[in-house]
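new request in #modeling-help
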Amino acid sequence: MTPAISVIFFTTASGAGYGLLALLGLLVPFGLVPATPWFGLASLVLALALVSAGLLSSTLHLGHPERAWRAVSQWRSSWLAREGLAALLTYIPALAFGAEWLLARWPDPAAAAFGVLAAAGAIVTVFCTSMIYASLRTVRQWRNAYVALNFFLLAGFTGALWLAPAAQFFNPATWFPEMLALLFGLAGLVAKIFYWRRIDRTPGASTAETATGLGHLGRVRALDAPHTEENYLMREMGFRIARKHARRLRGMAVIVGFAAPLVLSIAALTLPATPALIAAVIAALLALGGVFIERWLFFAEATHTVVLYYGRAA
Amino acid sequence: MPGEIIALSNPIGDTVKATTCYMCACRCGIRVHLKDGRIRYIEGNPDHPVNRGVLCGKGSAGIMQHYSPARLRSPLLRIGERGEGAFKEIGWDEALGIAAGWLGRIRASDPRKLAFFTGRDQSQALTGLWAKEFGTPNFSAHGGFCSVNMAAAGLYSVGGSFWEFGEPDWEHARLFLLFGVAEDHDSNPIKIGLSRLKERGARIVSVNPVRTGYSAIADEWVGLRPGTDGLFILSIIHLLLQAERVDLDFLARYTNAGWLVVRDPGGATDGLFARDADGRPLIQDRLTGSIVEAGRAGAAPRLAGEVTLADGRRAVPSFQLLAERYLDPAYAPEAVAGRCGIGPERIHRIAAEIAQAASEPVVLPHPWTDAAGVRHTEMRGRPVAMHAMRGISAHSNGFQTCRALHLLQMLLGAVDTPGSWRYKAPFPRPTPPHAPPGGKTVQPDTPLSAMPLGMPRGPEDLLVDAEGGPLRIDHAFSWEAPLGLHGLMHTVISNAHAGDPYPIDTLFLYMANMAWNSSPEPTEIGRMLADKDEKTGEHRIPHVIYADAYFSETVAYADLVLPDTTYLERFDCISLLDRPIGSAEGPADAIRQPVLKPDREVRPFQDVLIDLGGRLGLPAFVMPDGAPRYKSYADYIVHHERRPGIGPLAGWRGNGTRSGRGAPNPDQLERYIANGCFWRHELPPEAHYFKFANRDYLQAATDLGLIDKPEPITLQLYAEPLQRFRLAGLGHGSILPPPDLRERVVRYCDPLPFWYAPFEQEAVDEAAFPLSAITQRPMPMYHSWGSQNAWLRQIYDRNFLYIAPETARGLGLEDGDWVSVTSRSGRVTCPIRVMEGVNPLTVWTWNAIGKRAGAWMLSPDAPESRQGFLLNHVIATFLPERNGRRLPSSDPVTGQAAWYDVRVKIEKEASGAAETVPHPPPVRRPPGMSVPVRRAHA
Amino acid sequence: MTSLPTPRPGGKKLGLVIDLDTCVGCHACAVNCKEWNTGGHAGPLPDYDPYGPQPDGVWFNRIHTYEAGEGETGRTVHFPRSCLHCDEPACVTVCPTGASYKRAEDGIVLVNADLCIGCKLCSWACPYGAREFDEDEGVMKKCTLCIDRIYNETIPEAQRVPACVATCPAHARHFGDLGDPSSEVSELVRSRGGYDLMPEMGYRPVNKYLPPRKNTCHAPALPAPATHNASPGGNPNGSNVGERLLAWLDRALSS
């Protein structure tokens, strides 16, 4: 699948945003991160900014962005519609959560309730996003449980990595977000490695023989494509990445997206306040970059069955 | 439920007009739907006999052809150097004035100095007449580089031909053999027919070096090496004779198998038929043993046994000569299979299949009467049908190969019988044909005595001078190509450039892309067209007039360009006098009518020709007072009479009720238009088969004017006219070949088919050039036309050289590699594609995808010029010169260009090649022409 | 509504049966389809860079060429590919706006271009590559099974079939109701072993493909000639051939 930059940015940014939102919604009521209004304002603005930037970016790849509002109507069948709906609905508890937070005196049951609702909305939205891909039978690299797990863990990871500097800024003694980041990060890395092993080792059920139904005649090879120049299908779904190149990028994703942020997070736990804050910010930025690479690969390494018709393996 | 409201019953357009397609040579009926003055949709006409409602990809893309940006807009006059493409637009009066000036001077001095050659010859009845009236023998259409071998072999054997002039009996054939068929002639009828065969469970065997198109759906593909079809066929004949599985009754009744051939080695009549005083061929009656004239009522010929004629000469039936030749072990499968590139067991098996299918006759319950008046209660036929086209034809052994195939048909008794190949009306014609070509004498301001293209029956009909040298610029009907029935268009420019046999003044070309895909060695042709005489500074070909609808590669080489309309803007006539659309059930013809008015300064070429005919005072085109006889081509179509009562169109003649013969009918075109632009005359079932000897058919054909007399047509197993040429080669008679050509004439003008290696094979070291290189026609393209079509060029805008896996491996090549392809005369660089379905000693590519940069209004960086290529660049026009004589690399009997003879070697190109070679510089676009950047049409 | 219509027993399922045994790869269907549809309900079907270096456009029908098997016994198969109007079309269910839908009355899968936001997800969901994005209009397009032909009362009834079917010279395309087991197309599928593309995908295509038929040849070998046996050692040359011929001809023609 051809990596669509706007969509990759969307899942990366909104993943971090929803992760942050979910963590805020779940942790603040329990006092695991600072409850100060300024922290609330800053972190929620950051979360919603990441989410909104992602959502706006996702409309860039639409043929008709102005019709994007229609995209929520078919929630009964479409994961994309569900995602849209969930994303929109999540704003309600998220904004209410923010308002209550700023006005409330902690502990505040209403704020806690909105927080939990916002967290639920965020998790549901991320799940819907992952299911857009995981529901496609046409792309074997996407059609597996690792996809949802990966989206979930990386949302938590990047969310936690953003939560950490925000929390540190307001309370340098905070350590819980870093711990969460370490937890999500390690789990995410393991899940990703398992994902890569799976896609490398599990061939697709579909072949040129099943695509054409001509297997009974022998091995099927594409001789001539319908048209001598590339068409929409191949531009959209015929992206190819060399194995060597993919391996290098995987390594880069692991280093930039996981290893470095994890090391920096541990460092942040041990360093004095200001360097720790800097380390945490760098960790969050690096993770965003690394996840961007990981998501790019998520597309680039995905093969669509339509390429079987054009003489390639899927 | 979804709320979308769909207009289910929108009318297709606001107007619909029937006409005839021109997107290939098929001539399907189409219905053109217009909406707001633009074409909305073109569909097949369900009522039309050719296509019965279907329409191919080319026909369906007619819209984009009509709206092509490459349409010429105005007459053009060259202002720069020839070949540079610098023109100015001029008006029609000026253009026609210039043309008439050049042509008038020639006609008044030496009409031979006009060479008038046309490409898409669908109005050859008019162009041929025009050349005759002008008085130049230097006329032909493109048949010489197309399929004259097929036409000549057929006409001299069975009085008809494959091509689009005959068709398999799709409804009754049980075995169908397809030889080297180009996918752009009779293409929809063949596709309709193939599916009909499949529905009926008939078997299809395709003999073709390449497994594409029709070959792809054959039950069996025989991937023969190019140029060996003759050997394959003669080997089958060998097996059939061995097994005594030929139809002796058919041979005795309908062919010249029993005609006695004089056996008088060294004598002047050796190999000719023994004839009586009235010139009638003789047979030995089987019952009485006496020698009587062929066709005598009650007599049946013996097919073997030497007899002594009254004058003491010995003679044998031609069948015996045939059997003696082909029973020779040299034709055994084991002896030939290696050359053919297949295993001998396949020849055995296919021969067995043929014999088996032929042994189970198809019987139709139609009583019929033969030419002798004998009533038959039923029609019994051999359900083995064949079809062949350019693949076997475009070789220097093509004539004899095509003859061999007809021989096989005759031996099987599978000619125009139920289940076999059948003639389409107006065929069969008497065979051997006899219509001496005009041009023996040429005089100023005088028409020729006969049409420039004819059908010689012997040396006396040739167009040669006292030394045996050619009289035509293309050397047709000379000893180089005695049966050059369609001319040798591919040699015209080279010969004109060389002044061989004489210089010309004006080259007048119509829709023939001679500077590119219609010529071997196109770069060389371009050079010759632009070349000047060093001494005089004048062009070696002083004037070039080119008529075409589109900006082809040849436009740049013209001095004067006469822009034609598209096929949807003019009247045309698909005439029984030319290349009609008849079927086996009866004759048919058709017209085109203007569907749209031209929006440019263009005129139908035929109108222009008629206008020029009037200006030049050509007798057939002016009234006795010198005024133009015809207002337009439409006027000509209706009023011209070739012979009394016979004109371009056969339908609705006289008062509108006459078919075939009748006075001109002023309302004829209206009647055609009302009938969907075609006319069809269905013969009764008793006239559907055995037409060569079917009394009802022969009478009906005579009444319709298809033939002159209702006399039976004897199929020519043994082709006597060839023996006449051969005897001249042996020194008999007064018209003799030049000494250095005698051996050639004797060898190749063999009255019985034989196989010889294609000339190119003998001209090169086989080890140095081990591979045959051929082209195939892509079904969605017609010659070079498709590339300007916004839809069709999406299907093919670049081509590859296809090569068998083991051949590629042997050369260290992988799919997608670039290679250089070198022949003795040229070299191209191109990418390869590996495929299973190709003979391992053959490489091939699609024809005419490669374009010169900038031509056809494609952008100069279009893939057609950067990744597309022509095989033409490695094909030589001439054989290596010997004894100071330059002979074309063409068939020695007909002069057909031997496109598929070429031998090449292939070498891997250093990595980095990404552009095909040769890549001549871009051509300049004519003034006033532009291309929409994004949109194909509004 | 992108939820699929509830299947009704015996409900109409209009679709195509494509005969790979007769398709010669002429592209007639593809071009005529383009021609019909560019001026029809789903039109225009744009062409990008039509005379330039990368011509490309929207086609609802694309003709591939495959080779299957090796050498002379292998086959070249021309393979038209278009929308299969599946029973379980995920291209419909993934659509977030309701632009993609499957008609309850005949099973045709369509796109309502007015609702389409151009997210392209349906093209990702289609295993067969049947969806074509119109970059000019920013909406997805696809084969309509010529819905504006097959129900069009302004054209003769016999021609109310999809353009690709009407124009196919090799009669390799058949149109009909595959939901009706007694229809001609259902009968063809039964008798010729019609099959689904990528059945493992579970989309349950309505369109079926008919496989190339087997190459069978049962001609007995040509027997050794009777006359040949009668004169063993006869050299098939000169007078021996003549004698042999005479014997053969006498025998054959005297009956």
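bot summary: Strands of chain A lie at 220-224.
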